[in-house]
Every structure is written in structure tokens, then in C-alpha cells.
Amino acid sequence: MRISLSSFEGGDDRERFAEALSFMRDNPGTTLHVEPGVYNITTERAREAQRAVMAGEYGENPQNVMFTPDYVYDRGLDFKGHVNSTVEAYGATLLVDGFMEEISIRECAGVTVRGLTVDLKRKPYSKGVVTGFDGDRVTLEFPDEITATMPFLRSALYSQKEGRLIPHSICRIGDFKYVDPHHGIGAPTVPGVVREGDEFYICHVFHGRPAVLVEEARDVLLEDITIHTHPGMGITAFHATNVTVNRLFVVPSEGEHFSTTTDATHFASCRGLVRLDGCEFEGQGDDSINVHTYYYSICEVEGRTVTLEVRAPDGTHTQNTDCPEKGDRMELTEASSCAPLDTYRVEEAAIVGENRCRVTLDRELPEDLDGMLLADPDQVPRVEFVNCRARSHFARSILIKSREALIENCEISDVFELGVKIAAESGWAEGINSENVTIRNCRFSNNDRRENLCGGIGVYMDAEVHKPVHGTVVIEDNEIECPECEHGIIVADTKRAIVRRNRIVCKGEPVVIKEDVEAVLE
Questions:
Q1: Sign of the CA dihedral running 58, 72, 313, 414
Q2: Half-sphere exposure of 28 toward its Cβ, with a 13 Å CA cutoff?
Q3: From 2.40.50.140, 2.160.20.10, 3.90.1170.30, 3.40.630.30, which CATH number describes the 2-122+209-262 domain?
Q4: What would the DSSP string read from start to end of 445-489?
Q5: Which CATH class is domain 125-203?
Q6: Contacts 24+ apart (CB under 8 A), 16-21
Q7: In the prediction, which pLDDT does 348 show?
Q8: Does residue 515 have a pLDDT over 90?
Q9: Which of 21-25, 170-174, 360-364, 381-385 has the lowest mean pLDDT?
Q10: Which partner for 494 in 144, 293, 470, 506 could form a disulfide, CB atoms 3.0-4.6 Å apart?
């Protein structure tokens, strides 16, 4: 069945979408045609949330309010309960007034969304254009109104001369002073690199609800989606199975050089296949993609029954509790090295509190559990990140903590840190070690200008103790041009590395293979 949005009525555009989506939920297999145009998506709560953030009423870091399990928020398009629904919206823009979760794909199966663009009426950052200098201070002119109490979480300089964001460790705005709703003054940490016409982006929020949520959903297809900006992540998936993302564009809107305030995409505790093909990323405040499961802290043990807690600094990335499924494997993991030591099977599992679950294992854990964690290797998908481009954004670009991954035919340039990082991060409670990763036919240029250590690919573990934990990594036929960096490739904490036919320009040793790694070099 095929229907059109224009056939549905409502008090505003959000209500019209709600009526159409309600019909689709009751009629599985329906395709909704959304006519080209701008659709204003807003609620009183969403507008109030943005006003409160800008007024400083949520504190210096609004994430402490907006990114909590009990925070109340509104949704734009809600696909809860849908089966085999398709939205085709080429030429349609959701122009969002306020802070909300624009597209919510949850507790559903077979949902496809094509062609939508998401943008905010008032960005979650402020752009200040350099219009003058007074000694070591600059005058900034803001096209959008600012307030004297707005949160100032961090800033990023966009250099017109270099055509990219400059890492905040190199140059940022300090000692910012409000002048009036359209002007401020500040002191660049490296004033010599700043020129008239350059832009300082001041970020007002880190994590919030994502622009697109995929949770407790399976067989989801997102295609030709554009996200220009959002107060938080672009796409967040949690407990989702088989997510395909074709031609996603997380890129600034015209005339801007900043997009989402944190990750462009983030996949936590997912299953099956996560595939991104032909996507583009630019200007976001964190990674292009991060894929992981969580490390569970062991709280209580009663025979074979174990109480677990996710002690990630920010909680889970949807603020819902992570819990294994019956039949999953659980790996007893050494926290200091992230090395798996033994494997168990889950016979029963249930959520028992915020970030807490209780599992019954097929046999008892050892008595001495000091320094031990548990991890679920069945809650990480195979990752395929192919034919994608990323440039001029914060942090790493591709961050993989999954057993199986293919990264192929990608271009990564001018990102603040590594182009590709394969590493569990125990400090964030994000795992797991990889077993079979291939990175090939990719081009990396001018990355890691923050530390100038490695401009291409790093394979290791963010852990206190280093030992061979990863399985096999194949790094072949890549081009890495990072003349300011010491190295192009670093491999450590890995059993076997095949590194061949890579062309690398750097200051020091092109390829560094740490001890205890069985290496095949060509």
C-alpha cells in the first residue's frame, strides 16, 4: 500500500507525520510518500529545552541534565511497533525548532527511511566570525543571538586559509566575554594563526538525544539521509540487529563548518551486520563511527547468578540499561589488558535496576574476581565501512571495537586524531578486542594534527597492561600522507599483523610493529 503525507491532517507538521505513521503501524508494509518541502517539527518542550540550555539553566554542561535516564524529551517521527514500513522523502527537510529526538526507530522491524534531511532552526552551537583584533584578543560577530549565560563547552577554529577545522589543542578561544547578543571577544590560544574572516564555533552541548535512534529494532535501512546538525549524535543504535546505512551525509549546512556536537554514528551492543556504504562526514564533534559492546563490572555473585553493572562514565548511549540475552556467551576479561580469559553461557538474564542486570551462567565464576570484567561477544556486529569519506572533524574517524570488520575504499582527511583506531577502551567501558579486521584501499591525509603521532591506522588496546589480545589484522594497499606525523601505521597488542603494499609519507618510521606481534611485512 502506498500513501502520501498530504492526505493526512493535523495541527502542525509533526501531528501530520504522527497520523500517517499511526496508519502505517496499523497497516504493515505501507510506503509513505513525503512531498518535497520544509516541514517544521517542534513542540513546546523541545523549544523550552533549547532555551534553557542557551540560558545556562541546565548548568555549565547541559549533558548532565539532557543525557540521563529520567530526562523527559519529545520525539519527531516515531516508528515504534512498525513492521516493514517505508518512508520515501526525497527533497523533504525536517526543520526542527528545539532539542528533541527527530527520528525514533524502536521496537520495530523492517523499517526503511529514504531521502530525509534534518536541520535545526537554531544550531546547537554558535558561530563567531572574526571581525577585528585588539592585541591578542579578537572580536567575534555572531549571526545568531548569543546570551551572557550560554554554556561554553569548547571551541573550534575554522581556518578560511586552510579550509578545515583546527584541532582545539592547537588553537581555541579562551577567556570569552559576552558583549551583546551578536558580539563577543576572546583570546585565541595561538593568536598568530587566526585571520579576519575565520570562524570560531562555540559548542553549547555535548551528548543529548540522537537525531536518529535505532533501538530494539532489526533489519533497518537508512538511505540518502542528511543530518546537518544536532545536539548530540547523528545516528545512535543500541540493541539493534542488521542496520544498513547507504549514503548518509552528516555534513554542515551551507555556509557552516560544524555539524553534530558528538559522534556522527554510534553502534552499541548491536548484532548481525552493520554496514555503512557511500557515506560522508564532516565537522562533527567526535568520531564518524564507533562500534562496541560494554564491559560489565561484577557487583555480586551468588553461585552461578551474577549481578552486573555498566560503569561507563556517561552511562549507555541511549541511557537504557544494557543486558545480555539468554544463550549469549560471556567472556571473563582481565580489566588491565582487556584480554578474554574464559567463556561462559547465559542461561537467564534480566534487568534489575538502572545500568544493572542479573545473569545466570552455565557454571560458576572463579572465586578471585579482583580486576575482572565480563563482556558479551554476541553483542557486537560484523562491521563494513566502505566507500565512505570523512574530513575536518574532531577525534578519530573510524573507531572499531568489534570482532569482524572490513574498512575499504575510504578517504579520511584532516581529522584531529587517527584515521582508523582498532582498540577497546576500558576507561569508557567500551569493548571488545577484534579477531579479524581488514583495512584496504583507503587514503589518509593530514590526520592526527593534535598529537602528530600516527596519521593513518592504529591497532592496539587502551589498557594498562599490553599483551597480544587482538587476533589478525590485514592492512594493505593504503595511501597515508601525514608529513607532520611520526608514523603512518602502529600495530600493538595483536597476535598477527599482515601489512603490505602501503604507501606512506611521514616524518619517522612509516610502520611500527610492537614486540610480541607476529608480523608479515611487504
A1: negative
A2: 8
A3: 2.160.20.10
A4: ES--TTT-SEEEEEE--BSSS----EEEEEEES-EEE-TTSSEEE
A5: mainly beta
A6: 17/41, 17/76, 17/77, 18/78, 21/77, 21/78, 21/79, 21/82, 21/85
A7: 98
A8: no
A9: 170-174
A10: 470
